[in-house]
């Protein structure tokens, strides 16, 4: 007999599959006696027979998916053997599917790729989910999580398997959303419905559709000049929304073949990182700013590029000292130049800028000059006061230029300004009055005195010439007595001088310079003629012819002391040379007379004898000069009776002439003048000291 049963796969062991005794038509009590036994095909024991109840029981839990896999039907075949009589019965048990398995995808995560330039409608096949259950318990449908760009499409194969596909509905932009995360759900048809999910990751493949972009496209960097070579200027911020080679950027300077940028010699660019560094010293004075163009190019195919513009502005530092330029110097300058006379034109420049380039010029305050600004960076050096070459023949002028930077820089330039002489000073004698002495009878051409004058001017203005002025003070022109060397001021005699004729001379000397106009001054040299003993004494009384004798009678009884006569003599010389002394010439016999040494009086020295005859006396008159000169007179004294002489009447002395009186007056005036001048000079010298 053929028995057919069915049992759900999820039943527990002991579940009654079927009533064998009833279905076989055998009494239950006979099953044991007939030795009913169950033989399974395939050696697996899933069932057992309860002989007491005559039923087929489930011996172990069945798993249809394990027993039959994906077979649409799942049947287990059993054989029942009974003896007495021997009978063989075939039993077929259908294992019924129960929705005990949820759909399951082969991979919990599915990674898909799609190019960002894919057109809408592009399909991405998905792997089919697996569900061991069969029939209605198998996969019924698929669901996709919501997406703006993707939708789910389910196709049915010829074998009835449903094939899920993801369909692109909206264009992609990898740069906005590079990765899309979706969830795919597989649902079976069981009750309750079971499901399985898989994460779907869709990578949007980059297409080189974005150029490199500089942020910002135009930038400015402030950089101090003279920074060390290798200093980082900036790092370009360039982004390329593409990825991979499409987003790899290389940097290069953008220059023109016809005019390559000068900045390429001063700056370096790292092609990989976009770092711009200095590769040479930067000088603000050479260029205050640099415009740098950079090309950013990706490695896509075709390559796309962007452009960055960088302006590097240098900050000036005070690295340059001011420079002084002497445009013109008027040297020498006349000492009579009026205040405000332009001496020099001075230019100044400083290559720095701003305060670093603002320059001030300075000169020493004690100088008689000042700086006047003519116009920007140009100055005039002008006189600020009177100049006097005699006080300062020149000036070392140092012009100092100082900028306003921090720290300050300064430079200086010196030049010598010579002051040209102007004939503004008259010659000046060392003394307005001088005194000289000269022996009378000196030979013509004898040097009397040398006057000396000085002139603080120079050159021809200080070239002096001397001359003697005729002022009419002498009766005879002074030039007939003296001459002067016009070059050295030495006064010489023209002829021999006679003290007895002229005792003093006033010699006016003029000194004149060679300037234009010439200036002059005068001085007076008082030349005193020194007396020489060149005149012998002259006996004026008694006056007797040469070779004759003077006869004088005296009383015969004249007593000692009686004044016989008086010898009167004069000497044209003066001083010691005119000091006269009287003496008797020695004779063989003793004379009773004597002569007063100084007065020249002849007196009776001793009483006369009555019988004495006349006496002959030789009286010598000698001066005190060297050598001494003398004169003599012979006096014959005759004693006579009743001889009385009025000596005062007979003594005829010469009277002084008016000319001698005038000469004496001149001499006194000269001595007084010289004394006064000497006092004044001594007072001035004392005041200066």
UniProtKB/TrEMBL annotation:
One GO cellular component term: plasma membrane
Pfam families linked: Cadherin (PF00028), Cadherin_2 (PF08266)
UniProt keyword annotation of Transmembrane present: yes
Gene Ontology BP terms: homophilic cell adhesion via plasma membrane adhesion molecules
PROSITE patterns (UniProt xref): CADHERIN_1, CADHERIN_2
Transmembrane regions: 663-687
Membrane topology: Single-pass type I membrane protein
Stated name of the protein: Protocadherin gamma-C3
Organism of provenance: Pardalotus punctatus (spotted pardalote)
Gene name for this UniProt entry: Pcdhgc5_0
